[in-house]
Specification:
Number of domains: 2
Structural class: mainly alpha
Strand content: under 5%
Shape: elongated
Strand order of the largest sheet: 1-2
Number of helices: 29
Largest sheet: 2 strands, antiparallel
Distance between the termini: 87 Å
Number of strands: 2
């Protein structure tokens, strides 16, 4: 991809002609401090150590509760769990391979977060050598560097990619295992494809088949790798030069073979895109055009193109959530300035395409890789996300690596003065060191839910969802007044937001004011009719004010949306208990326990229903289990004595 040239001289391993840092660096890579075979494992080790603080992180209340610690469906590798992994689209994703890794985590670690984070970290560390070998092949095709300079360039590119704090979200957030896993498989797919281009026909076919197989695995890890076929076409144009730079060169016999080769990749990519869209749409995550019309989408696209480049060069103010504004207009300064910057960059790389084809190739690839998340088809609350830079960042890292190699070669050839070369290399080392330090710090904001959301509101003070999450944490800790202040902030920032009603309703539940809770949950459910948690909370609040019959409708709807939701089974059990149907109630409580064995409310329900039906022995047994999972609730029930005769 990169094509940075400063001199015609080819620099080989035995560099002794220039004194100072450049010669030392290139010699050390070829025969000194680090032999070629040691480079890949060294890169993996450095990456692992920089992100090591992630092992002290827990799970966070930002999808981890839905995907992991409140989700019993993935916990094992037997057939019922595997069937669920291949059939569900939880949170808008069809990611069976990622679920299999989570299932393995549970087998090895149960629900200890350190094991889940260790698996993600090991997978991410493996991304580094995979990236290195891809960079080595692409830089060899696009530059005339000697072998030692080439390796130095590939190492620089790899470190820039792997140690960048934009990677922190993908590594530190347990839910985002899908990023690091699909990223690794994506890089291996590209590597196999590049290897195929250097082999004879028969071996080439086998390598292409292997590349296709890896692509399938990448797609079932995360759908965003759907962009791979377009990325391969960019590589075929530059640096592989299998397709000419002019459009008419894309239709000859040679070009036809290139297109035929892409057919299976395109078929898989389109299938992945269709499944990804289905998963998002099934969960009602797709942002409707009524909310953000077609006129807003160009502003979102241009802003995204600028945002990730800006954060790559200067990773300041990184946040777990950059909230989508209420209104998006290209004429607003927030969107107009990035639009002008992107237009200028695009114009520049197009004008320089003959002298610097790598610039255009990297920019086109960047736009392609951002395609699924750039805003054309939008989902979620965010305008941008740090994790979306994972695949798009590859091209920029290669450009940085090529620049480092060009500086070293320029110094060796005498084109650049030694003090300047030393200064540039020193600056590059400081830059990489700073990126590593920032990454080690950034992963620690994901330590727990409170640190995550308190950091988020510091970085993004106008993020209403961030304030809402801080409020919910304060509620759980019993700080009702502080929580209400956060909810008032949400209302001030987003008067039209109904999500705040969910939090306020929950606050009234904790206060024991169920009438107010019902009113707030009703407002929330009216806006979000398919939110299972909202429906369940509304049903539970209605039961607590003696309106069990009214609670049936939202609870049955919640159970239909998510049949394995343990909380809904519990709430329905209490609803039937309130209506006098003890037989149905006891069945629902038992089903809830089968789904979530450590559910204290389900055991409490069994205590209640067995006492009402006169089965004191069964009530005593259930009370014993309740004491294991919630001693305070068991103490409120009081001891249950079995009469002796």
């Amino acid at each position: 991809m990169p094509d940075i040239k400063t001199a015609e001289l080819t620099v080989g391993p035995p560099i002794v002609s220039i004194e100072g840092t450049p010669g030392v660096l290139t010699r050390s890579l070829s025969a000194g401090l680090l032999r070629p075979w040691m480079i890949a494992p060294a890169l993996a080790l450095v990456t692992f150590l920089v992100f090591l603080p992630v092992l002290w992180n827990g799970f966070v209340a930002w999808d981890d509760q839905i995907n992991l610690y409140d989700n019993p469906s993935y916990r094992g590798l037997t057939w019922p769990y595997i069937r669920w992994m291949f059939s569900n689209v939880t949170m808008g994703h069809w990611i069976p391979l990622t679920w299999l890794t989570f299932g393995l985590d549970y087998v090895l670690w149960e629900m200890r977060p350190v094991g889940y984070h260790l698996t993600s970290l090991v997978i991410f560390a493996a991304n580094a050598p995979a990236f290195y070998f891809v960079a080595l092949r692409l830089l060899r095709r696009s530059t005339s560097f000697g072998e030692s300079t080439l390796r130095l360039s590939a190492v620089t590119a790899t470190l820039f990619f792997a140690l960048h704090p934009l990677r922190a979200e993908s590594v530190a957030w347990a839910t985002e295992r899908r990023d690091v896993l699909s990223g690794l498989l994506y890089l291996l797919t590209v590597l196999m494809y590049l290897k195929a281009q250097d082999e004879a026909e028969e071996r080439r076919r086998w390598l292409l088949a292997g590349s296709l197989g890896l692509y399938v695995l990448a797609l079932v890890s995360k759908a965003s790798v759907m962009v791979l076929p377009a990325a391969l076409i960019v590589l075929d144009v530059y640096p592989l030069r299998r397709l000419g730079g002019r459009w008419r060169e894309w239709v000859g016999p040679t070009a036809r073979a290139v297109w035929v080769e892409k057919i299976p990749f395109v078929v898989l990519g389109v299938a992945g895109a269709a499944v990804g869209y289905y998963a998002q749409n099934t969960n009602s995550f797709i942002t409707p055009l009524e909310r953000y019309p077609v006129t807003a989408r160009p502003a979102m696209v241009l802003y995204s193109l600028w945002f990730y480049l800006d954060k790559t060069l200067v990773p300041r103010g990184l946040s777990p959530l950059y909230e989508l504004p209420v209104q998006v207009s290209l004429l607003d300064r927030q969107f107009l300035v990035p639009a002008l910057a992107v237009t200028a960059i695009t114009t520049t790389v197009v004008l320089l395409r003959r002298r610097w084809p790598a610039g255009l190739a990297a920019w086109v690839y960047y736009a392609i890789a951002l395609g699924p998340v750039i805003g054309i088809v939008h989902s979620g609350y965010q305008l941008t996300c740090d994790r979306y830079s994972y695949l798009p960042g590859i091209g920029f890292a290669l450009i940085i690596g090529a620049a480092a190699g060009a500086v070293v070669r320029g110094g060796a050839a005498g084109v650049l003065r030694p003090p300047l070369v030393k200064a540039v290399i020193g600056l590059m080392l400081v830059w990489l060191g700073a990126l590593a330090y920032l990454s080690a710090q950034q992963v620690q904001i994901w330590r727990d839910s409170e640190s995550l959301w308190r950091y988020a509101v510091e970085v993004e003070p106008d993020c209403s969802l961030c304030h809402g999450n801080v409020g919910s944490r304060l509620l759980e800790q019993g700080y009702h007044q502080l929580a209400m202040a956060e909810f008032e902030r949400v209302k001030a920032l987003r008067p039209e937001s109904k999500k705040v009603n969910f939090y306020v309703g929950y606050m009234y539940v904790l206060r024991g004011d169920f009438s107010q809770a019902v009113a707030n949950f009703q407002q929330y459910v009216a806006e979000s009719p398919n939110d299972v948690e909202g429906l369940n909370n509304l049903g539970a609040a209605l039961i607590n004010v003696g309106r069990a019959r009214e609670a049936m409708e939202p609870l049955e709807r919640a159970l239909k949306l998510k049949p394995r939701h343990a909380g809904t089974h519990v709430s329905l059990g209490f609803a039937y208990l309130g209506l006098g149907d003890q037989a149905r109630a006891i069945t629902l409580f038992r089903e809830a326990i089968a789904l979530k064995y450590d559910s204290p409310q389900a055991w409490y329900g069994l205590v209640r229903v067995n006492l009402e039906t006169g089965n004191v022995a069964a009530a005593h047994t259930a009370w014993g289990f309740l004491g294991l999972f919630d001693p305070k609730l068991a103490a409120r029930v009081g001891p249950i004595f079995i009469p002796t005769w």
